[in-house]
């Protein structure tokens, strides 16, 4: 008798559970459209933010820009010193300081320095958007009202105009002064070379800490001193050559 009772009590239980699950599970598909509509709100907000980012470019402060130029100038001076040193050793030539004004080698070294300067700034502005000095102060050179780096031709033209202003006879000094005034005091901080290629130096980050700036300046002064000594001992000579 007991086996019959167990078999009769077990068999009715399973169909009731299955039918109740199927009945309770049937309304679930109606919740799916509500869940699919919720992610659309943040997507629309993100697109609006991305459309507004190019218009919030902040022009660089003149102090940051001048400090960056000083640091880049130290690197360029080192490259120029090494180039002059190679010329002196390869061709066994030197320049007497007392005859420097009449020596054509001074013109050659000056041209070499100008070429290094143009290549340095043109490459870094087009490749990275900033020179090593500008990176330390969170600066970038972009197209006006954009976040796009300059192309190599535009970067080269920018530096060619900046360097060429100074060698214009008579008016070169005045143009250099005007260029500096525009960089320091104009609203957009654009010099003549920036206006030609429609570029702008902007702030995209914070500068390095003050103590790191002081440390770098100390290293730069030491580097300048070593470079000057190299030029005096191996390229320029005081007195007559033996």
What does this structure look like?
The protein has 242 residues and is mainly alpha-helical. It has one domain. Helices cover 67% and strands 7% of the residues. It contains eleven helices and five strands; from the N terminus they run ααααβαβααβαααβαβ. The chain has helices at residues 2-10, 13-25, 32-37, 40-52, 62-91, 104-127, 132-136, 152-165, 171-185, 192-197, 210-235; strands spanning 58-59, 95-96, 139-143, 199-203, 236-237. The strands form two sheets. The protein has a three-stranded antiparallel β-sheet. The longest helix has 30 residues, at 62-91. 19% of the residues are buried.
Produce the secondary structure layout.
Layout: H1 2-10, H2 13-25, H3 32-37, H4 40-52, E1 58-59, H5 62-91, E2 95-96, H6 104-127, H7 132-136, E3 139-143, H8 152-165, H9 171-185, H10 192-197, E4 199-203, H11 210-235, E5 236-237
Parallel strand pairs: 2-5
Antiparallel strand pairs: 1-4, 3-4
Helix pairs in contact: 5-6, 5-11, 6-8
What key attributes describe this structure?
242 residues, mainly alpha, 3-stranded antiparallel β-sheet, two-stranded parallel sheet, 7% strand, globular
Briefly characterize the structure.
This protein has 242 residues and is mostly helical. The protein has helices spanning 2-10, 13-25, 32-37, 40-52, 62-91, 104-127, 132-136, 152-165, 171-185, 192-197, 210-235, and strands spanning 58-59, 95-96, 139-143, 199-203, 236-237. It has one domain (63-236).
């Amino acid at each position: 008798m007991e086996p019959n009772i167990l078999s009769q009590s077990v068999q009715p239980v399973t169909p009731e559970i299955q039918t109740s699950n199927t009945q309770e599970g049937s309304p679930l598909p109606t919740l799916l459209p509500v869940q699919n509509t919720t992610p659309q709100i943040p997507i629309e907000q993100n697109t609006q933010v991305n459309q507004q980012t190019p218009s919030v470019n902040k022009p660089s402060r003149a102090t940051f820009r001048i400090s960056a130029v000083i640091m880049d100038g130290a690197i360029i001076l080192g490259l120029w010193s090494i180039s002059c040193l190679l010329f002196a050793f390869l061709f066994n030539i030197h320049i007497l300081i007392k005859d420097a004004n009449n020596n054509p080698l001074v013109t050659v070294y000056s041209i070499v320095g100008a070429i290094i300067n143009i290549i340095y700034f043109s490459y870094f502005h087009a490749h990275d958007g900033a020179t090593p000095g500008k990176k330390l102060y969170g600066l970038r050179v972009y197209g006006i009202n954009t976040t796009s780096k300059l192309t190599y031709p535009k970067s080269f033209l920018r530096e060619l105009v900046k360097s060429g202003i100074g060698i214009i006879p008579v008016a070169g000094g005045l143009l250099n002064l005007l260029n500096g005034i525009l960089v320091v005091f104009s609203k957009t901080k654009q010099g003549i070379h920036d206006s030609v290629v429609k570029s702008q130096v902007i702030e995209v980050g914070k500068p390095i800490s003050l103590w790191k700036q002081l440390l770098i300046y100390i290293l730069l002064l030491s580097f300048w001193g070593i470079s000057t000594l190299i030029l005096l001992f191996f390229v320029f000579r005081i007195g007559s050559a033996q």
